[in-house]
Structures are given as structure tokens and as C-alpha cells.
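thread: overnight batch results

M.L. [08:02]
morning all. the overnight job finished for the chain we discussed friday. pasting input first so we're all looking at the same thing
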Amino acid sequence: MTTRKIFFAISLAAMVLCLIAGYGIAGQWIGVVITIITGLGWLLGLKYPLFWLPHICLPVSVCLAVAGCLAGSSPLLMIFGSGAALAVWDVLLLDASLRSSSPREQTRRYETDHLQLLALAIGSALVVVFLGQLLHFQVPFLVMIVFVALVVFGIDRVWGYLSKYRLHS
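M.L. [08:03]
and the structure it wrote out:
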């Protein structure tokens, strides 16, 4: 089993379990059933790489998370579930694009770099979500936009330095 299929399975399990737990806590059993059907749709997308299936399952999964928040489920479970759905979507598209390529060193390195970047993005987003649940600030909108722009610029610079370092080593 390849690394991307393991990552797919872990992300899919996390998405389904978080959404089922959130809907189960809220007592919304129709949400549990729709979540299970959506999980089966994701598995079908892995077995039969149809172009349109991942693009349907992602909005359904995110809408399930939003509906769960509106129904009174735990926002942390729903946010984690939607983030895992985004990871499932990304890995499914990566798998479809690399399926026809030969398993060369460059392909394996690309896959590893892509999965590391995906894990970094999901991990940093979850840290921000957890901090957002703990800390409450009254920050003007303009200051927040400047802060976000600085963070994005900083991440871009760090990623550029890391990429340059990898090319030279």
C-alpha cells in the first residue's frame, strides 16, 4: 500500500468519525446516514477515478460539517471533519494524477513533498482553530487583513528558502 493510500485511509476515517461523532452527539441521525453514504462515495472515487466524483463529495462533506455546526454539533469536530474531507479530496486527486506515472524517484519525491505540505497545512490550520477556540480578541478588520497578509508572505518566504535549500542539497 502506497503512502498516499495510507494518508487517504487515515483522512477518510478521521472525516467520517468526526462527522458521525458530531451528528451523534447532536442526535441528528440523518446526518450520520448521509455521512456514511458520503464516505462510501469517497471510497468509490478511489476505486473508480472518475473526474467528477471528488468534486461532488467535497462540497457534500463540507456542507455536512456546516449543517452539523448549525444543528448544534461540536464545532471542533465539524471543522476537523471538513479539514479531513479537504485532505481526502487532495489525496484522491493526487492519486488520480500519479496513477499513470511510473514509480520513479522523482515521482516518489513529489508525492512525499506534496503529502508533507498537506499535513503541514492541515496541522497549522488545526492549531489556529484550537487557538481560536481558546483566545478571543477584538481586532479591527483592517489590522487582521494586514496580519494575515504578513503571515502568508512569511510562509511563502520560508517555503522558498526550504525549496532553495532542497535544490542545493
